[in-house]
Amino acid sequence: MKTIKMLGILGMVTVLGIGLATRLTAAEAAKGTLDNLQAAYNGESNAKARYDAFSAKADAEGYKSVAALFRATSRSESIHAAKHAVAIRKLGAEPKAVIEKSDVKSTKENLEAALKGETYEKESMYPDFIKQAEIDKNSGAVMSFKGALAAEVEHARLFAQALKELDSWKEAGKEFYVCTVCGFTMAKIMPKCPVCASPKSKFDVIK
User: Fold this and answer.
1) Distant-in-sequence, close-in-space partners of 18: CB < 8 Å, separation ≥ 6
2) What is the pLDDT at residue 30?
3) Which stretches does DSSP call E strand in the chain?
4) Is the separation of the CB atoms in 63 and 166 below 8 Å?
């Protein structure tokens, strides 16, 4: 009888142990997504500050349309940061960012730095973050990361174009449209956002 009771107790301990291990694994995975959200929030917050500084430099050097592009990407990054913050709070944490001093150089060099940063985000950072969030089954984080990724792809394309056509970007006149719902940045007006399908009434016009 004692043997049977002991086996029963051991069985319960084993089951509880397996359950605890499963919960710890899930918690560790959730921590991975939370860490990624915090990293993304910090990155987008710093990108906003950096593009604000780059915009001021472009204006000072007479690259008016480049300045408009930096203002548009700054607005976009602020929207991404806000969406990441929502996902962070849903996990019971507070978003944190340490804003570093922007390394401002010439407009050409600033565009090169911006392109490098956006290329890293679209090719490495956000794809990796999305994979982890999908493993964690965190749909809110997946959506936030995917929205940012779509915008970073377009930012990289626009920065590359500005670099290639730098002289023609001196004159003012280029306008950009930023979806205030998802942060996607457009070089021309569209009936709706190609990422989240929000109507053009939800776009900010940056020039």
Assistant:
1) none
2) 58
3) 176-179, 185-186, 203-206
4) yes
Comparing C-alpha atoms, which of 57, 50, 106 is closest to residue 73?
Answer: 50
Has residue 20 got a pLDDT over 60?
no
**What does 81-118 look like in DSSP terms, one character per residue?**
HHHHHHHHHHTT------PPPP----HHHHHHHHHHHH
pLDDT at 28: 52
DSSP state letter for 103: -
| Domain architecture of the chain: domains with CATH | 35-206 (1.20.1260.10)
Burial of 61 (0-12, 13-18, 19+ CB in 10 A): middle
Total residue length of the chain: 207
Distance in angstroms (rounded) separating the CA atoms of residues 189 and 200: 8
